[in-house]
Specification:
196 residues; 9 helices; 5 strands
Length: 196
């Protein structure tokens, strides 16, 4: 794949997502995007993440941004966790993401974020029911595979947060949102992709 970062003026990485992008439940300066921004030179980060956003919200914001994007703009997209936790059908989520991401990738260089895993502690925290947990976990695994295949077909970069954070509540605030240890692992993964 062509290295779009090499030899260019400073880029703007415009990051769209939900609470996993915005930074939920942590002190300012301690979530992954802020940590990565301090370590990566030549890229200026803009965080358009918003807690509670569904994939449709995230894609709509990113597509609206395309209308005013400049030649040095790139996009990061990560979403889908809230859709699955809210009971939105996996087939609808995948169809929505494929349409939106394909459109964005045809317009600007794109990085897709693979969301971290969700642990059973998310049930106790009220993010999902015990009844739906196992089915949601299966959908989540299928969704990860879908995102990876989509990224490969579009030849776009991927940051796979599902691989870097252990499936262990020691790395989470509430089974959904990584704590400071988890955020540091996420930042390391982002730096490996964007900091070359």
């Amino acid at each position: 794949m062509e290295d779009r970062w090499k030899g260019q003026a400073p880029l703007f990485m415009n990051c769209f997502g939900d609470s996993l992008t915005e930074g939920f439940g942590l002190r300012k300066g301690r979530y992954w995007l802020e940590i990565a921004a301090r370590e990566i030179h030549g890229i200026r980060f803009r965080n358009f993440g918003s807690c509670g956003s569904l994939s449709s919200d995230i894609l709509q914001k990113a597509e609206f941004f395309l209308e005013r994007a400049g030649s040095q703009d790139e996009i990061f997209i990560m979403g889908g966790t809230n859709d699955l936790l809210c009971g939105i059908r996996l087939s609808s989520l995948e169809k929505n993401m494929e349409r939106g991401i394909s459109h964005i990738a045809a317009s600007l260089p794109l990085t897709i974020g693979i969301p971290p895993q969700v642990t059973r502690a998310s049930v106790e925290a009220g993010w999902q029911s015990e009844f739906s947990y196992d089915a949601n976990q299966e959908d989540y695994r299928t969704y990860i595979s879908f995102l990876k295949e989509l990224a490969q077909s579009l030849d776009v970069r991927v940051i796979d947060f599902s691989k870097v954070i252990p499936f262990d509540d020691d790395y989470y605030v509430d089974g959904v949102h990584p704590n400071e240890k988890g955020q540091e692992l996420m930042a390391e993964a982002a730096i490996k992709v964007w900091g070359n």
